[in-house]
Amino acid sequence: MMSDTIDVLTTCLCGRSNFTTTIPHSSLPMPGHFCHCTSCRRIHGALSAFHAPWSAPPSSAIEKLAKYKSSERVTQYFCPTCGAHMLDSSPLEGSLEHNWTIATPLVQGAENIFEYKEHIYIEDTKDGGTSDFVRSYNGTPLLRWAGRDGESEQLPPYWDTTKDLRARPEAHDPSGKVKCLCHCGGIEFYLHRPNIKVSPEADFGLPDKWFDVATNRYIVEACGCDSCRLDSGADIMPWIFVPPSRFSLPDGSPLPEDRMFGTMKHYRSSENVSRNFCGWCGATVFYMNDERTEWDLAVGLIDAESGARAEEWLEWNTVVVSYAKLAYNKKMLEAWQHGYKAWEERKHHKGIVSDYE
């Protein structure tokens, strides 16, 4: 006879932090959502968090996790070894109980456990963020909320910006820079323009695909591999690839050669790979492969004036998701790929108009 419940494992990248939750079959699929608030973006390093309501984890699991107060009411829980953000909680009004939210990509069998229903806190992105990429899930359109679900304005299918950010004068200034920071501010630095007009080979030493010569912008590559998923708590993780010479500390000095500064910690996820994160708030910051000269920067840390997609700085590669064959949640991959390409086609079809010409 089939059991009325299933036991579901939640685990981080290193495996140190894990716990099992018993779920009634009758509750499946559970409703999931994309959270676009600035806190989630700065903590996960992705453009949004992949979340769902969850039951309280066992106290033995909580004891293994690092805690960070991201606001007066919300506490974040992440693995102190690899930095994977697993849970957050907030007190239930008028009760000693808490509301719990889980990072759905860390849940085993997530594809069959969660059915994503909505985007929340889109207004924090200023440009729509990934809500413009993933507009439906498993064939069902997603609701779009400016803030909290059910308590804020419901938004139309697209954020619908009409500005060509590539035409901004600063987009062609080789001395330009933009601040990058984690949620707590313990890690803060600047990203500089590629400066390819000076000497693209000497300055970069990278294949052409990592930057757009015509617009002087970094190319975003979204990754669907298991390691990025379990490290960031995001099913699809966007990165850009940057040589160390294009970073600086707030005082103008270069980043240290050992790659450690501020509240930085690192986890060796394989023989040649370090994944760097903030030891205080757990923010995903860098992926570093010893066999490559460039550092991979988590896009969610870029504090661009235009918004989360930072389009005056970034060229979004909508052609491919890296390691797509390794994607754990195939439904999410399909939703992302379809919406990603549709977003790009819509931009070209509309003929984006510049306000800066």
UniProtKB/TrEMBL annotation:
Q: What is this protein called?
A: CENP-V/GFA domain-containing protein
InterPro entries named in the record: CENP-V/GFA, Mss4-like_sf
Q: What keywords does the record list, in alphabetical order?
A: Lyase, Metal-binding, Zinc
Family, per entry: Belongs to the Gfa family.
Q: What is the lineage of its organism?
A: Eukaryota, Fungi, Dikarya, Ascomycota, Pezizomycotina
List the Pfam families hit by this protein, alphabetically.
GFA
Where along the sequence do coiled-coil regions lie?
A: none
Query: Where would I find the CENP-V/GFA domain in this sequence?
Result: 8-117, 174-317
**GO terms assigned for molecular function:** carbon-sulfur lyase activity; metal ion binding
Q: Which Gene3D superfamilies match?
A: glutathione-dependent formaldehyde- activating enzyme (gfa) (3.90.1590.10)
